[in-house]
Batch of 4 targets.
Target 1
Amino acid sequence: MVNYQGITARPLSGLIGAEISGADLANGLTQQTVGEIRQALLDYNVVFIRDQELTSGQFLAFAQELGEPREYPLLPGLPGYPMITPVVKRKDETMNFGGVWHSDTTYLKEPPMATLLLARSVPPVGGDTLFANMYAAYDALSSGMKNLLAGLVGISSSQKADAARTREDRVSEAGRPNSDTELVGEHPVVRTHPETGRKALYLNIAHTVRFSSMTEEESAPILHYLYQHSVRPEFTCRFTWKVGSMAIWDNRCTMHNPVNDYHGYLREMHRITLRGGTPR
Ligand code: OGA
Ligand code: MN
């Protein structure tokens, strides 16, 4: 347990994730509490707050305390709330949105700084989400690999097949008019977190296609190694949702992967991403 002044953080694993208590998001927070939640996010990289059955208005207001909400490029938001994207898997569906290890929308020039996810409907069991600490993944690399990666740029695409497939059901139902145009982002594969100053690995199997200075074939073995390495069990934590649970992850130094083990049940989450800067 770590005590801030107003909130308490209970770590979920040795290297990432903490459940926070002592913040009631529905009723407006003091700047002190908002600051402590931000600090806990920097300390634990992903934080979870239970029992927050917020209205869409309250959810948006809380997100605005933490940053600047941004629209998701590929799908529309809720009616009246363009910044809140429903992330749904219906009873009769088998693909789950984002069901591959990834950091959010790295194919954008300015990927989000953080994402908030609020559980609205969850299966009786299953549908957990895994998170991985990309600082820890970077730190654990050999000096040879760190040297190789220094200065390399990764190209991310919105159209890698495995990730695109996980969006198919939602895009065909309600996609934005341009949701099949390829978006491409180029970012350093090792980025320095603008707030903590720590280095984090910044590439992911869902969106990264190759290093800018190498062909896909040349990049593949190195990327493949790094994808495996970065999700070693000791870099991860796992969160079990209940209705009203909220996760906030720092998208600059983590990846996540929703587990698709609940066929036959509805799972519905509401998602807000916060504006980030250019990764450096
Ligand atoms: C997302 C995502 C994970 C989940 O919304 O970006 O990857 O657990 N969702 O639904
Ligand atoms: Mn995601």
Target 2
Amino acid sequence: MSVSDKTAVITGAGSKRGIGRATAHTLAAAGWNVAILDLDETSAKDAAHEVAERNGVQAVGVGCDITDETSVQNALAVLDDSMPPVGALVNNAGITSPTPFLEVTGEEWDRLFAVNVRGAFNVTRRIAPGMAERGFGRIVFLSSVSAERGGGVFGGVGYSAAKAAELGFTRALARELGPRGLTVNAVAPGLIDTDITGGALEGERKTQLLAGIPVGRNGNVADVADLITYLCREESGYITGATYDVNGGAHIH
Ligand code: NAD
């Protein structure tokens, strides 16, 4: 068994400076073929092209709205026809919002859960059966330090609640699918330098946050990508149901 005859699916890996794209590269460097699902079809294809060119693996990029079951079904059908069987899934696509609880609307709350939780459900529900059938799978969820410490970085209550839901999802799924050869883990990044905040986290607030990080810097995407790739190794089969912090010591518990 080798990862070179398997595909890793990464959602939300279009974003140029995002955690997903960096993860696609590190997984490909470790030998995985890669499938990128992103709302932004052009960036998904661009990322796949970049990954294939740089790492010499098969890569495909597909436009997909993970909140929409039909869109997920259609995107995964493309893989069925063109890629090796799926051995890893990284539930990375996510959105955040800093809206305070006393101002948040039901629509915004639902949207946070639609992408971060229901989206991960839509993709995992379609991919896990094949993994279970083949007796091998690695699933990694992108939660957040916000889930563990109750916000306080950028995201508000809705984001923290959705990211905490992903932890429950991870743990229960690990228990259910362990006997079928799947591991399911979560990573909980702290402040990582990407475009998810749309440039809204700058100035005084950022300086304050950095002051609370023992290693003295915010994280970069490679810090997170390496951890995810480690969890996807075949040799990491005894690690499951775990949450891995990658936050520079900003939250130690
Ligand atoms: P990003 O904004 O750079 O990338 C997110 C990607 O998800 C984008 O490419 C976007 O197009 C895609 N996406 C959004 N909605 C989608 C949908 N409905 N269907 C398909 N794709 C969709 O974000 P990032 O900072 O790289 O974050 C990646 C993950 O890590 C997220 O789940 C985020 O919550 C989590 N995280 C990030 C940080 C951080 O500080 N950056 C910290 C903790 C957790």
Target 3
Amino acid sequence: MNPEKKLSEEKVFKDPVHRYIHVRDKLIWDLIGTKEFQRLRRIKQLGTTYLTFHGAEHSRFSHSLGVYEIIRRIIDDVFKGRDEWDEGERLVTLCAALLHDVGHGPFSHSFEKVFHLDHESFTQKIILGETEVNNVLKEEGADFPTKVSEVIAKTYKNKQVISLISSQIDADRMDYLLRDAYYTGVSYGNFDMERILRTMRPREDMVVFKSSGMHAVEDYIMSRYQMYWQVYFHPVTRSAEVILSKILHRAKKLYLNGYEFKYHPTHFESIFNGSVTLEDYIRLDEGVAFYYFQQWLDEEDKILKDLCDRFLNRRLFQYIEFNALLQLDKWSELTNLFKKAGIDPEYYLVPDSSSDLPYDYYRPGEEEERLPIYLLMGNNDIRELSRESFIVEAISGKKRTDHKLYFPLDLINDTSSKKKYKEEIKRILGI
Ligand code: NI
């Protein structure tokens, strides 16, 4: 491998979460300048959350730089010179940190669900395909792009490197928790990251935390738990997400049925018909999506037009607690009544659920194995966190799921037509 090429002068980015992001490596500087990475400026980190917390306008660009900076501090300030750390892994780790989310599209989750796309496979394609990112990485060696892609895909030979970027306590989560707490303005996402970083130690195949850092790690786990329920699964954000998904569904369905759009959805065409190329995908960003939502306000199709108006002008759906799987009778009754009331249940009666495990110890063979957090005890023993921490033990392995049903209250309240059915719907929904 080439000796690491350094910039003649260090570059810094001002960052509200980490104060400064430091770049000394030419490779990192060149990656930041690629068009695929710059595109992340035009994709929000938290999708529709800005409709609930108006500050949440930050981009995936800022999060990606943040993850890079956390890794840089771990490697250059904490791990450097320690026997168990191989300095030869430095650049591949930094590049993987910077690029771990490079394949995200606009409004990630809704887009992926509706169009069966997968941002992880686009991340791989951007790193390995014919892109500016790939050209920059190749300067480091012909097999360097593959190494970076393996770290992100969690197949890389050095598990220590993988656990820095994806485990139950990794640079990705530490950055997004702090960053999302900062931009939403909530007070519960904070924890002492500096303290956690100082107590990290490289071990064969993993990263451990000195037991003196346990309380800072507990704080991180609690912050994660709080952020999930207070911010990430906020029902108002999910309501906006539901509407967004339905816009995409409707537009795709109309397109496939040969509907004549007043304004042809050129940028969406290959996504709608399943022939999307990397080039098409890279050209899509949230600005492009919003442009079409504006255009579709003028469409003849009442559903598409109405959903776009709701999303742009924040006329969101109302919700109740409801588990459609446990209340099948009620569910089919509601579906029928919606049809009779002239409100298409496919777009206007939407069940949605979310769930999270605050911390999970290692359960081999289960579908999503999660690497546990290990503490390094005074006598050099290694102990799994929930065995030492009462707080973590109390919430370990406890999955919480929350089910809701979304509907447009304004349409149901409009009793100028189909009054009888709408009254019945209100009675069943308990509103
Ligand atoms: Ni990330």
Target 4
Amino acid sequence: MIQKKICMFGASGVGKTSLVQRFVQSIYSGKYHVTIGVKIDKKEFSVANQDVNLMLWDFQGEDNQHKVRSSFLRGASGYLLVIDYTRHETFVTAFSIQKMIETELGKVPFLILLNKSDLVDDFSISDDEIDEMKAKYGWEVLKTSALTGERVEEAFTELTRQMLRHA
Ligand code: GDP
Ligand code: MG
């Protein structure tokens, strides 16, 4: 079976761990665990008639530590860059995070996730800003919710599809 590594990126609290949990276990814990290190979850699934063993690498706690970044990224076939739809600063920092990853890893498939799409009343990123990001950078954006599960499976499936094509 093909094995592929996916890294989760994005500012603290955007929902990286919750998205992995939702995808791997189809549950939502609603808990906020801050521990140090990296958690690696595994999920076997099928994309386009291809069995894939995904390894999902997720930083626990602060994810801006230079010293762990290159070993975290090594061998990654793709990544999800998560933004919190309700916190504008996580949209702003996504641009520098993306630049950093590309410098370190080169061009590999990735998707931008606007997470917490269930919190409609608290959105702090405008449609214009999202459209501009898509137009200017050509990034693919999905609106997800780890809480409701909206488009979570689709995000991992689409990324894996692109990774298999890229390989
Ligand atoms: P991480 O630091 O990026 O791993 O973020 P977590 O997965 O730990 O989530 C941070 C907080 O946001 C937690 O309290 C989660 O319950 C909450 N959260 C994560 N995803 C969602 C979502 O889609 N909707 C809502 N309403 N809350 C979410
Ligand atoms: Mg986390």
